[in-house]
Amino acid sequence: MKRSRRCAVPPPATAQQRPTTRRTADKVMLLLFETPSGFAVFNFFATLIEQPNALEVVWLRQFQTIEDSSSAINQSTGVNGSLTEMIMKYHCPGQRMAVGESGYKKIIEERLKITCVYDPTVMELMWGIQIRMRQLVPREKSYLHESQLLPMSQGLQNVLSRYDFNYFNPDMLNERILIMAYALFECDSFENEKSGDLHHVASVIKDVSGIETDAWDLPKIATAVRRIWCPKEASNSCEFSEHEVKRLVNDADKYEVKLDKDACLKVSRQMITVFHFRNDKKILLKKYIAQALDAYEAE
């Protein structure tokens, strides 16, 4: 089984520690995020823009409060001194910066000569930071009203649609629904990340034990792994014939030659946990949407 590689979030850096190579500038972008009381500068991996399904990692570099945000960036005066200093402190030559308004893109490119990115993918990222603002920008003490979370991001609409909430009214959106939708998104992301490994396991089972696995879903493949090496852990939620169980157990030694036992067991346990976790969150999401609908219709 292949071992997945995750990018570690870099530690906070001082201006002297910031990357300066062209190669790094191509991989790591800046993001200028406006909050109710100021601006924050983040770093994130450029693959999030180039490949929207890539690992989503952002980390805060600096936040500063600004009393009058309208004077911070405008066409007449450009970018004010303190905001310019913060941006340039973390900007590397050739590095791109994501911004949340088309006007900001125009002004910053003209005045600071920094290439900016403003497109639907950037707005999805901005929306995600907005709903997690209190965690990502701890010094920001202001709260966003739920109406400020509209319109819904395309990603949230996709999650709700995937779980058969196609006709969800954006006016019913609240924090509980957001949290459940995010939990389901994380479950789906994990499943997508590990599906290739588990389907490889299924092909090995078919080759070694002669069991037809083409129609198996991921929870059944994960359960089969546990039946091979840890039969006492395997649940009865996935149906196996007595013949299949016997073949899996009897061929355990053969699988150790072709598969990484520890890695397979780890992923199988994670997949089963995610499967049950997702079922619980689906029930809660349905409940919260029903409650939001009742409240909306009562207004």
UniProtKB/TrEMBL annotation:
GO terms for molecular function: snoRNA binding. InterPro entries: Nop56/Nop58. One of its GO terms (cellular component) is box C/D methylation guide snoRNP complex. It comes from the Eukaryota. This is Nucleolar protein 58/56 N-terminal domain-containing protein. It comes from Aegilops tauschii (Tausch's goatgrass). The lineage of its organism: Eukaryota, Viridiplantae, Streptophyta, Embryophyta, Tracheophyta.
